[in-house]
């Protein structure tokens, strides 16, 4: 059985961010999806999740935050 690349504790990960400032954890061995850029990493899954927790404090999309 293969391991889910998004839940492999021994793999390297990066944190991605899109134009709406939304964040996502992503396996470092996979190509970045269109519309996303690297914000942090390579780090462990735990380090990337900690980065997201510390830096994505307002989960509303940027387009909504600017109109509020």
UniProtKB/TrEMBL annotation:
Signal sequence range: none
Domain of life: Bacteria
Protein name: MbtH family protein
Membrane-traversing stretches: none
Pfam families the UniProt entry points to: MbtH
SMART domains per UniProt: MbtH
Lineage, uppermost ranks: Bacteria, Bacillati, Actinomycetota, Actinomycetes, Kitasatosporales
Native species: Streptomyces coacervatus
Domain spans labelled MbtH-like: 4-54
SUPFAM superfamilies associated with the record: MbtH-like
